[in-house]
């Protein structure tokens, strides 16, 4: 039986005047997954997150979190009680100390994890008396994660959590996420345009482009399905396009045809041979290329 | 804890306002002997113009402590400063560009609860910065050999609070429409000046005028508590706050 869905959107749209931030987005996030939500800047990632948390009202479509309608005010409060959130800007209260913001946040969560609070305060070397305003970006990110983790949240929504961090701190944050999920069985919805990070920790991905989901699924399955087929010909490669369904992109370079395919790889290989290829090589496609090829195709 | 956050957000404006209005009230009390002795030396101007009449009335009022306090504190310094700090307290309700807004909105409470708490905290602070200085006048009066009724001070303090609450609510509403913290108080100050000028030149609206209520003029002149004016200003404040809360509930952040 499939895992129950924590997030489910169908035909979700958000229009700002004539601008379509979301244009019929479909999204399913199963419980217990680390879902990498990929997209270029302005693709609709942050708008989706804000709708999930009730910060933005959708123009149309259906959006459910924990089977509750996120667009309704009372349900939205119940959803936020079960979610942790870290914004891209690590938006916290500059006028409070670390101790004050922790106490303030804890007061809204009956399942607040005081044990995790103590552990993370120690391991992050966060002083309760330190003013939030004076924290470095890296330390601020750690505080934001602490505030999200300790809620006892079933779902963590993280919008570009490593944005603005140096590679060492970014790596530390990713390791922290993985170890937290392993211990606490939390679902993570991680928005990012850093493909390497998603590749490293996500088990499912969704690629959003111009407000629509253009690819979604289990990352390992997508890696299996996406293949690069390189066909070498005796003379110049033929100019005709491939008729096989699932061909994402074809590049012609002298004697070589470079085909990126999503599924139907055997059919693509057979078609290449039928076109007269003398050698055909099939290789894996890294996530970065998968993303770039799909986005280029949509453009 | 929402109360605590609202207090942290506004405490400096409240404490500075309280200090300034208290100092103003103390200055009024302790300046009485100097002003009253000078007033005896000044000859009232003759003539029928508005300015001459105003000077004559000011001199007349300054001959008694009660008149002097009303003229200097309740109809001028405290009302002007109270209006200014009401406007300052009403600003910054929930701005999309303010630090911490997204964090606030990610927490499990409704925007209505958040805004209601913020408004209630601001009004409680405004009550403190209007009532305490008014009562301080009654408490300090014996220090200059005068008496001032606690009841009178309380009534004037309530009038000051209820009237200035309109400007608090107006700024609260304006701050839901502007992303920056500066335009709402500036616009509210402008509106306050226009209303003040309008009430000065069109005295017929006086019984329900906002500044007429703030000054507590009808009470001072022996016409009793301005109930109608108080009801009107409370109703205006309630409508402005309700519209502000509804605007925030509809807003995208």
Considering the chains and any ligands shown, give keywords for the structure.
heterodimer; A: alpha/beta; Rossmann fold; Alpha-Beta Plaits; six-stranded mixed β-sheet; four-stranded antiparallel β-sheet; 14 strands; B: 253 residues; mainly alpha; 0% strand
Task: Give the name of the CATH architecture of the largest domain in chain A.
Answer: 3-Layer(aba) Sandwich
Q: Could you name the ranges of chain B where pLDDT drops below 50 across 5 or more consecutive residues?
A: none
**Strand line-up across the major sheet of chain A:** 6-7-8-3-9-10
Biggest sheet of chain B, open or closed, and with what strands and sense? Answer: none
Percent of residues in helices of chain A: 25-40%
Fill in the CATH topology of the largest domain in chain A.
Rossmann fold
How would you name the oligomeric state of the polypeptide chains in this document? heterodimer
N-to-C SSE series of chain B?
Answer: HHHHHHHHHHH
Query: Radius of gyration of chain B, rounded?
Result: 20 Å
Radius of gyration of chain A: 22 Å
Task: Describe this protein's structure.
The complex is a heterodimer of chains A (299) and B (253). Chain A has helices at 45-52, 73-81, 98-106, 114-123, 137-149, 167-184, 195-201, 219-225, 265-274, 287-298, and strands spanning 5-16, 19-30, 34-38, 60-65, 68-69, 83-86, 155-159, 187-192, 204-209, 212-218, 226-232, 247-253, 256-262, 279-284. Chain A is elongated. In chain A, helix 4 (114-123) packs antiparallel against helix 5 (137-149) and helix 5 (137-149) packs parallel to helix 6. Chain A has a six-stranded mixed sheet with strand order 6-7-8-3-9-10, with helices on both faces. A four-stranded antiparallel sheet of chain A has the order 2-1-4-5, covered by helices on one side. In chain A, strands 12-13-11-14 form a four-stranded antiparallel sheet, sandwiched between helices. Chain A folds into two domains: 5-210, P-loop containing nucleotide triphosphate hydrolases (Rossmann fold), CATH 3.40.50; 222-298, Alpha-Beta Plaits, CATH 3.30.70. Chain A has 299 residues and is of the alpha/beta class. Helices cover 34% and strands 31% of the residues of chain A. The model of chain A has no long low-confidence stretch (mean pLDDT 90). In chain A, a hairpin with a 2-residue loop joins strand 4 (60-65) and strand 5 (68-69). Chain A contains ten helices and 14 strands. Chain B is mainly alpha-helical and 253 residues long. Chain B has one domain (2-32, 65-250). Chain B has eleven helices and no strands. Chain B has helices at 2-30, 32-41, 50-61, 65-90, 101-105, 111-140, 150-174, 183-201, 210-215, 217-220, 227-250. The longest helix of chain B has 30 residues, at 111-140. The model of chain B has no long low-confidence stretch (mean pLDDT 91). Chain A binds chain B through residues 50, 53-57, 73-74, 77-78, 80-81, 83, 85, 87, 89, 91-96, 100, 103-105, 107-109, and chain B through 1, 4-5, 8-9, 99-103, 105-111, 249-250, 252-253.
């Amino acid at each position: 039986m499939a895992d129950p869905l924590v997030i489910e959107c169908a035909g979700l749209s958000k229009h700002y005047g004539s601008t379509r931030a979301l244009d019929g987005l479909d999204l399913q996030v199963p419980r217990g997954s680390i879902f990498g939500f990929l997209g270029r800047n302005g693709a609709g990632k942050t708008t989706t997150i804000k709708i999930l948390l009730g910060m933005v009202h959708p123009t149309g479509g259906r959006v459910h979190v924990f089977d509750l309608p996120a667009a309704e005010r009372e349900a939205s409060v119940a959803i936020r009680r079960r979610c942790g959130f870290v914004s891209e800007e690590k938006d916290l209260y500059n006028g409070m100390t670390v101790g004050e913001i922790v106490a303030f946040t804890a007061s809204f969560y009956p399942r607040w994890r005081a044990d995790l609070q103590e552990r993370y305060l120690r391991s992050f070397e966060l002083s309760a008396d330190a003013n939030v305003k004076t924290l470095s970006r890296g330390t601020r990110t750690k505080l934001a994660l602490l505030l999200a983790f300790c809620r006892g949240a079933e779902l963590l929504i993280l919008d570009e959590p490593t944005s603005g961090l140096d590679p060492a701190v970014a790596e530390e944050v990713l390791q922290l996420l993985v170890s937290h999920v392993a211990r606490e069985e939390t679902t993570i919805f991680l928005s990012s345009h850093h493909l390497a990070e998603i590749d490293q920790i996500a088990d499912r991905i969704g690629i959003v482009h111009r407000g629509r989901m253009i690819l979604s699924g289990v990352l390992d399955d997508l890696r299996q399905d996406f293949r690069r087929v390189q066909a070498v010909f005796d003379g110049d490669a033929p100019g005709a396009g491939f008729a096989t369904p699932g061909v994402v992109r074809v590049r012609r370079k002298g004697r070589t045809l470079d085909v990126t395919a999503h599924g139907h790889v055997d059919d693509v290989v057979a078609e290449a041979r039928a076109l007269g290829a003398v050698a055909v090589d099939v290789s894996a496609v890294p996530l970065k290329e998968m993303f770039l090829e799909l986005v280029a195709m949509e453009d | 804890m929402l109360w605590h956050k609202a207090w942290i957000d506004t405490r400096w404006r409240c404490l500075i306002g309280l200090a300034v209005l208290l100092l103003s009230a103390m200055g009024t009390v302790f300046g009485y002997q100097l002003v009253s002795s000078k007033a005896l030396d000044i000859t009232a101007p003759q003539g029928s113009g508005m300015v001459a009449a105003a000077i004559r009335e000011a001199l007349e009022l300054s001959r008694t402590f009660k008149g002097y306090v009303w003229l200097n504190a309740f109809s001028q310094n405290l009302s002007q400063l109270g209006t200014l700090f009401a406007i300052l307290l009403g600003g910054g309700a929930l701005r999309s560009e303010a630090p911490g807004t997204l964090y606030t909105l990610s927490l499990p409470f409704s925007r209505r609860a958040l805004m209601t708490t913020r408004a209630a905290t601001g009004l409680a602070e405004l009550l403190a910065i209007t009532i305490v200085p008014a009562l301080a006048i009654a408490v300090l009066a014996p220090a200059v050999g005068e008496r001032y009724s606690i009841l009178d001070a309380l009534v004037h303090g309530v009038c000051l609070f209820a009237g200035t609450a309109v400007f608090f609510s107006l700024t609260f509403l304006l701050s839901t429409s502007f992303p920056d913290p500066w335009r709402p108080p500036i616009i509210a100050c402008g509106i306050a000046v226009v209303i003040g000028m309008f009430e000065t030149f069109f005295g017929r609206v006086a019984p329900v005028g906002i500044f007429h209520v703030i000054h507590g003029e009808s009470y001072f002149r022996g016409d009793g508590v301005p109930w109608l004016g108080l009801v009107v200003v409370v109703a205006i404040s309630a409508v402005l706050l309700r519209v502000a809360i509804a605007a925030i509930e509809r807003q995208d952040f």
